[in-house]
Amino acid sequence: MGCEHECFNNHRFEEIEKSIHDMQEKQSERHKEFYSRINKLEQQTALYSNDLDHIKETVDEMNNNLKILMAVPGKRYDTIIVCIITAVVGAAVGFMLSGIFPM
Fold it and tell me: Whole-prediction pTM value?
């Protein structure tokens, strides 16, 4: 009782095989599209990562420059104090040498 000659369900089997083949082709196309999109995302992620690295470097450089600029007023005050001390000591030495203060 096999289907050696003409099987009653043969056309159904052929339709199912055709349907499965069509589904496989559609899935294959979808997979290609997904892989293409994933590849684009990977490339964009690499670019964003590179941009982020450059931004971090720039922020670090700006942070260092800001620290240097913040230290400048402290150096100015140190310079002013050194000048005042030098002037006072110079005046004292000058007065001693001129004889105003007895030694």
Answer: 0.46
